[in-house]
Design brief:
The protein contains 4 helices and 12 strands; from the N terminus they run αβββββαβααββββββ. It starts with 5 loop residues before the first helix and ends in a 5-residue tail after the last strand. Bound molecules: flavin mononucleotide.
């Protein structure tokens, strides 16, 4: 091993899964943002954690509503990842701009987004300040998978591709 700078070492950590953090504000407006800094953090009860940057509109809505959805990007959603990661729901209605179709969730007000591989409806269970991000922990209340199955879209570090050839 040799010591190097932190950014260079971290740049080699890929592949990384890509999820959308989907929210629905008090007026019913739906937003989504791609996130890579997401992990399973409890088996019983089942929980997911995601790190949201301090300036993210999504963070404001999660704090206000106490619920969010973690939806794994599907292999056909490269453009959705690119677009939703470049603008903020504070200024842009990303769902309308992308023409995404929504369907009702089962346990929260946050709807399911077409094209995702799997979706987890979460109730906010806690948060932890983490430098320039805040880690939000959600208890999973309901889970959904695409039918027929859709492969997860994965970030290979500079390019996105399906997680595996066969599902
Ligand atoms: C592949 C990818 C992964 C990202 N991962 C994260 C992440 O883990 N946390 C985060 O706060 N932002 C992440 N971003 C940036 C947000 O998606 C981006 O700032 C987005 O515009 C925020 O939208 P919002 O203001 O509507 O919440 C990522 C972007 C991309 C393209």
């Amino acid at each position: 091993m040799k010591t190097t700078d932190i950014a260079t070492a971290l740049a080699g950590k890929y592949p990384e899964w890509i999820v959308f953090v989907v929210t629905c504000d008090a007026t019913g407006r739906v937003d989504l943002m791609p996130a890579g800094w997401c992990m399973v953090c409890s088996g019983e009860p089942p929980m997911l954690a995601v790190a949201l940057g301090l300036g993210r509109h999504t963070r404001t809505v999660v704090e206000a509503t106490g619920e969010f959805q973690i939806a794994f990007a599907g292999e056909g959603q490269r453009e959705v990842v690119d677009f939703a990661g470049r603008c903020s729901g504070r200024e842009v209605d990303k769902i309308a701009a992308l023409g995404l179709r929504l369907s009702p969730g089962a346990a929260t007000r946050v709807p399911l987004v077409e094209g995702c591989a799997r979706s987890f409806e979460c109730r906010l269970a806690g948060s932890l300040p983490s430098g320039d991000h805040v880690i939000y922990v959600g208890e999973i209340l309901a889970a959904h998978v695409a039918d027929p199955p859709v492969r997860n879209l994965v970030n290979f570090g500079g390019w996105y591709g399906p997680a595996r050839a066969e599902e």
